[in-house]
Amino acid sequence: MNRISENPVTGRKLALAENGDLCVYKDAQWQRLGFNERFAGEFAPCTFQDILYARDDFYAAGTTDDGQAVLYSSLTGELWTPVNLTEQHYWEEKGRLPKGGAVKLFFEPCMDQILLVSAGGDVAILPECPKCVKILHLTDRRVTDAAYEDHRMTFTYDDGDTETFSLATADRIRVSLSYVKEALAKGGELIDVRPQHRRLQEGLIPCTAAVDPEELDDYLRNKDPNTRLFFICSFGTVADQATWHAYRLGFRNARSVGGWHRGLHID
Q1: Letter string b/e over residues 191-227, b meaning 16 or more CB atoms within 10 A of that residue's CB
Q2: Enclosing H/E stretch for 167
């Protein structure tokens, strides 16, 4: 067995076999699950790269025959459910998946998050809310192994080189309101990316512009890429996504203010 994970309460065990299949410890012996045969026609055939026990569930990360990372969860290790890996955006119809196949799984206890590393240099961050997947693209080099400790991710590349990233630094896209106020005085823009129905329900925010998320590309199309852009929404998720989207479009000064609420003073 390449790796064994155990539920410390029930003693239930799951193992990753050398051939990329899963095995469960049942009736005092290891039994091959035969994942691809058991779930033929329901899930795409895959080879598993890593397993993990966290949040009272087993997790198994694999790579489909066409090279896409997949993740499944199971209470017992026998019946499996797909875990969402798609980072959803209003402006992308299909959303974004991690690039390349699965490499490694980690559990980040501080924020109760699953971290999935993919071969394409992505880290998929999976909080408890299945709709709030966030994907960090850390490198364009091919990743073959990874290690994680104390908010630091170390990648091993296919040529043997290693590189360490601070996930806090990689994901540091939020800024304080005092910083935003100073930037606005110098020509920055505060953009409300709440959908129209939320703006009507929650009230107006003093800002440069209010842009529906699906119209963000049109709003940014003729902007100077050096413009300081600050995004705000109801809870922070859409503002964070808008920031990353703008960043990938070349707006290196894009930042997120997070979420708005009635106790937040921005004037």
Answers
A1: bbbbbeebbeeeeebebeebbbbeebeebbeeeeeee
A2: helix 167-170
Q: Find, among 200, 261, 197, the residue nearest to 232 by Cα.
A: 261
What is the spatial distance between Cα 231 and Cα 260, in angstroms, rounded to a whole number? 10
Calpha distance 13→93 (Å, rounded): 39
Q: Cα separations (Å) of 262 from 119, 180, 191, 203, 235?
A: 42, 18, 17, 9, 12
Q: In this structure, are residues 233 and 255 in contact, taking their beta carbons and an 8 Å threshold?
A: no
CA 94 and chain centroid, separation: 15
Q: Which residues contact 102 (CB under 8 A, 6 or more apart)?
A: 48, 49, 50, 61, 62, 63, 69, 70, 71, 116, 117, 118, 119
Q: pLDDT per residue over 193-231, tens digit each?
A: 999 999 998 888 889 999 999 999 999 999 999 999 999
Amino acid at 148: Y
Measure Cα distances from 206 to 236, 237, 261 in Å: 17, 19, 13
Contact present, 48 and 35 (Cβ < 8 Å):
yes
CA atoms within 13 A on the CB side of 95: 12
Strand 254-259 with 13-16, pairing: unpaired
Query: What's the pTM?
Result: 0.73
Counting runs of H as helices and runs of E as strands, what totals does the chain give? 6, 21
